[in-house]
Amino acid sequence: MASAIPGPRNLPESAYDLDTYWGRVLHSAEVSDPRMLLVTKSQLEKSKDLVYKYKNNEIKSMTPELWHAKLVLDSTIHPDTGEPVLLPFRMSSYVLSNLVVTVGMLTPNLGTIGTLFWQIANQSLNVAINTANANKSHPLTTHQLLTSYGLAVSASCSVALGLNAIVPRLKAVSPNTRLILGRLVPFAAVVSAGVVNVFLMRGQEIRKGITVYDQDSAEPLGTSQRAATFAVGQTAISRVINATPIMVLPPLILVRLQKKFKFSPRSELFTNLSLILATSFIALPFALGIFPQKCSLDVKHLEDKFKDIKSSSGHAVKKVVFNRGM
Prior knowledge:
326 residues; 58% helix; alpha+beta
């Protein structure tokens, strides 16, 4: 993100009002725009240079070129490290990276082997995205990473296989309801494992705290466990919200279409792919806009050590900000 570029002058957070839901939706649509994947190394360096000049008062006001430079950095650079996020795990690649595994998970009548394969593939992708985009105050060790990955895979596979075995035995519901419930099994598996994944992968942040900054001066003030709990909790909720439209709407629409039209295996795959792709591009910004990426908290909600804290310039700190992570 552009906030990783050093300088005494802060950039505007966005061209949109991030205090409003619609502003965050529009901002998220820009940051998750797949066209940002086409940014070259020279364009990235040019964007860094422009933002640096603004933050160090060499450029006096925001221009369309500077707004674009900020967008390039926000969609490419990790806010804590200042380094580019690996391309498949950036927000601008979110829809494309998830497309294959989502289509795989939502394929009807997968069977046990297919269910296991696609749940493992999905959790592998989730771990990679979590690791690449998480708050870097306390990076996980390899052992912690592998443990979290194993538990997340176990959770998703257990839920998916368990529900696949239970749903057909629900005799008290109609065949149509069983069909719909069966199509929603991947959603239940993804959501449950996603929440487990977030808390396992980022448990170190909750135990040790994350760095918080003065909202006015961007000066680091120390680490806070309460801020970390807030950040990780919001991220877990956002995972459920992000998954809901993509994992729920396409299978329900496909069930309705299958009742009206006779699909060949190829046309069913194409229809499923189209539904997931369209839903992902349309729904993702609305889901991402639920919570701001850069969180703000009043110091009264933090530990006692922050209650009367002052910045290096001597003013009393009222609010802190921190990177929520993804």
